[in-house]
Specification:
Blueprint: E1 5-12, H1 18-31, E2 37-44, E3 51-53, H2 56-60, E4 81-83, E5 96-99, H3 110-118, H4 127-134, H5 136-145, E6 153-157, H6 165-169, E7 174-178, E8 188-190, H7 193-204, E9 209-214, E10 218-227, E11 232-241, H8 249-253, E12 258-261, H9 268-285, E13 289-298, E14 302-309, H10 319-326, H11 331-343
Parallel strand pairs: 1-2, 1-5
Antiparallel strand pairs: 2-3, 3-4, 6-9, 7-8, 7-9, 10-11, 10-13, 11-12, 13-14
């Protein structure tokens, strides 16, 4: 019998997506084949200072993790051991770190840089691609340089007064969101001046820079990509929010929050266009392993790139696993592929 690959799964961390990350990490731990892998789950606290080594049973016993959102409360693990960091996860060398952390300090190159210094292989994109993917302003500028389609937008800095946004964006509605962040945390639509002020204040709670987009009406779609040098696009997913006006946090993570149709109900030629664009974005950013690119179909015809997720959600409700399943790739097989891409 061949030796098991020793994998530590990092989850949680100092991010507004802390709870979502724990759900993703739990799902990864649950579906990693115990015949192939020795799995060591690690939960990082909300302030980032405490690392707890736990086990599969402790994670699977957690209930309603999302209820702790916007509180300082940590999840209660049945069994755990506080460790001093990545070097203390195991007495013997770790073969791979599976990063199941979303948002700042997990998806933005911070953890990736730490693991590069430690010389430990890890899943997903490397430092630069992770940082570009997380910083939506830098990502947009990169897309512009490649003449790839993005919405009209401006960046606003905290404390600055930008009075020319109407000249650039035209009349409302606008879509306002933090530059750094994911899961639509701090994002909202503004249809009038009162809503705009509210949207700006909300976004500034999560970052010192915010994006203000010209709101585009149309079908939301997303396309996952897996691979390294020769990546493969997954089936396109159509998103129909049921809870809110757009695919917000509630729509993403509450039951019946949205209708996700895979493959998307669009023409073959439009599907191919979205998949080709997704591959271009993946390669331009320099991604590795897996990612997901979000679009809005302007007038339901023209794909406009919104953002890239270099560590897309891996929860039971997440879009990448659903797209993989539609392509005949089970959740466990998807994890095997992500691990293989990292070890290669």
């Amino acid at each position: 019998m061949s030796k098991k690959i020793k994998i530590a799964v990092l989850m949680g961390g100092k991010s507004s997506e802390h709870e979502v990350s724990i759900i993703s990490g739990t799902e990864v731990v649950k579906n990693l084949d115990e015949r192939k892998y020795e799995v060591l789950p690690v939960v990082i606290s909300k302030n980032g200072t405490t690392w707890k080594l736990t086990n599969k049973n402790s994670l699977l016993s957690l209930e309603d993790t999302l209820r702790l959102r916007d509180t300082s409360n940590e999840i209660a693990l049945i069994e755990s051991k506080t460790i001093s960091g990545v070097g203390a996860i195991s007495d013997k060398p770790i073969d791979l770190i599976f990063i199941a952390m979303h948002g700042q300090f997990g998806e933005d190159g911070t953890v990736q840089g730490m693991l590069e210094l430690a010389g430990i292989p890890y899943t997903g994109s490397k430092v630069l691609a992770s940082a570009i993917g997380m910083d939506k302003e830098v990502f947009r500028k990169l897309m512009q340089s490649q003449k790839l389609p993005i919405p009209k937008y401006i960046t606003m800095h905290k404390g600055s007064k930008n009075s020319n946004f109407r000249k650039i964006l035209g009349k409302m509605p606008y879509f306002v969101k933090p530059v750094n962040g994911g899961s639509s945390v701090g994002a909202s639509i503004a249809e009038n001046v009162i809503e705009f002020k509210r949207a700006v204040n909300l976004a500034f709670k999560y970052d010192d820079r915010i994006l203000i987009d010209k709101y585009l009406k149309g079908v939301e779609v997303t396309c996952g990509v897996i691979g390294n040098e020769n990546p493969t696009p997954l089936p396109v997913v159509e998103i129909r929010p049921l809870k809110g006006k757009f695919f917000d946090y509630e729509s993403k993570y509450t039951e019946s929050g949205s209708l996700e149709i895979v493959p998307a109900r669009i023409s073959r030629s439009l599907t191919k266009k979205i998949q080709d664009l997704s591959l271009r974005v993946f390669k331009t950013v320099g991604c590795r392993g897996f990612a997901r690119i979000d679009f809005i179909l302007k007038d339901n015809k023209y794909p406009i790139i919104l953002e890239i997720n270099t560590i897309p959600g891996l929860t039971p409700m997440s879009l990448l696993p659903k797209a993989a399943k539609a392509a005949g790739i089970s959740y466990s097989a998807l994890l095997n592929k992500i691990i293989k891409y990292a070890l290669n």
